[in-house]
Amino acid sequence: MGNQVRDAEQTKDDNVTAPDAASSLEMEHKRMDAGARFVLKSKGTWLHCGYHLTTSIVAPSILSLPYAFVRLGWAASVISLFLAAVVTFYNYNLICLVLEHHAKQGNRLLRFREMGTVILGPSWGRYYVGPIQVIVCLAAVIGTILLGGISLKAIYVVSKPEGTMKLYQFVIIFGCVVLLLAQIPSFHSLRHITLFSLVLCFAYSACSTGGSIHAGNSSLAPPKDYSIPGDTKNRIFGVFHAVAIIASTYGNGIIPEIQATLAPPVTGKMFKGLCICYTVIIVTFFSVAISGYWAFGNQSQQIIFGNFISELGQFLVPRWFIRMTNIFTLLQLIAVGAVYMQPSNEILETYLCDPNKGEYSLRNVIPRLVSRSLVVVAATTLAGMLPFFGDLSAVIGAIGFMPLDFVIPVIFYNITFKPSKKSFIFWLNIVIALVFSVFSLVGTVAAIRQVVLDAKNYKLFADI
Description:
Layout: H1 2-12, H2 21-31, H3 34-39, H4 46-57, H5 65-72, H6 74-104, H7 112-120, H8 122-159, H9 167-181, H10 191-216, H11 232-250, H12 255-259, H13 269-296, H14 319-340, H15 342-352, H16 362-385, H17 389-417, H18 424-455
Helix pairs in contact: 1-6, 4-10, 4-13, 5-6, 5-11, 5-13, 6-11, 6-13, 6-17, 7-8, 8-9, 8-14, 8-16, 8-17, 9-14, 9-16, 10-13, 10-14, 11-17, 11-18, 15-16, 17-18
C-alpha cells in the first residue's frame, strides 16, 4: 500500500501548481521566526526522527490498553489494536508524503497548523488544526505528569505502606522534574533523551508483560473473567470509549514538527523513522495489552500496574519488581513530557522571542524560562486535580488524536495530490475519513459520559 501511495505522489507532482512568489516569501518569513529558529532546528537525521516518533507514540499510555480490552472482549480488542496500527502507519506516511511534496516545491512546512493553512485555508489552520493540536499536546503533558505522580506513589506505597503522602503531592514532585527538562531549548536537543526513551519503553513493557504473566499464574490472582461488564447501553458506550483509548495510545499529533527537525533533503527519511517506530509498537503494544488482559480479564485497572497489588493489599509480584518497573516508567515519562511540550514551546517563542537576537541572549532566555514554567505549573495543577488517567486518555483520543491522526491526513493527501475519483486510494481515504469522523463524534460523547460517571466516585485532588 505504501508503494501505491508513493507512486501516486510521483504521478501528481507535475500537476500541482508551485506556490506563487508571495506565498514563498510568506513561508520564508515564517521560517525566520523565533519558533522555527530556536525550537524546530532542522539538523536531525532519520534515526533521530525514529527516536522522536517512538517516544511520542510508545508512551506509558499503553499501560491502559488492557483496560480498553475490558470494554471490547478478546476478538474485537485484538482486531481494533491491529487496525489502529495499520491505519495510523498509513496515515502518518501520507502526512510525510504531503510534507515532502511541499518541500520539493520550495515551500517546506514545519508545523501542523501551517499544513492546515496551506492545504485547507487560513481559517482551518488558525481555528481548527492549530487549536486541536495545542489542546492534544497540553493534555498529553497533563496525562504524563499525572502518570508520573501515580508511578512515584506506587514506589512510595511499596517502600512505606504506612506512609501518609497523597497522590497530588507526588504529582507536584514529578511536575518539578518536568519543569527542569522543559527548559531544554530545542526539539533537536532531545535526540539523546528520546534514544534513551526508546530503550526504556522496551524495559517497562517487558516488565509489564512479565509481571502480568507472573501475577496471572499466581494463586492470589483474581479469577479470570473475560465477559464484558454492564448492560446493553453501557456496553455500547464502552465500545466507543475503548476505541478512543486505543486511538489516543496510537496518537501522535506532532508529525510535522518531528519532520521539521530533519536536515534537508527530507525525502524518504520520515518513512525510515516510522519503520523504526512501528517495529517497537508491534512488540510493546501487543505484549502489554494481551498479557495484561489475559492475567486480569475484566478486572484490569486503568493502569495495569495497579493490578500487581490485590484489593486485599497482597503483592502479586515482588516489591523490588514493582519499584524497578515504575522507575523505568518514570524515566520515560520525563522524555514524553518534554517531547509533547515542543509545539507549545514553539508557539510561545514565535510570539515572545526575537529571532534577530541570540538564542541564549537575555532577551530570549527570560521569556522562554517564564512561559515554559507557567505551562508546566498549569499542567501539574490540572493533573493533581483530575486523577482519572484512563478516562483522560479516552477524551484526548476522541477529541484530538482521532481527528488529527485518523481523519485530517487522508484529507490532506486527497487535496494535495488529487487522486482520481476512480482510484482505490481516493475511496480508501474517503472511507477512513468518514468512519473515524463518526468514531470521533460518538467517542467524544462516550468518553465524556465515562468521566461524568467516574467523577461521582472521586473528588478534586483525590488520592487514588
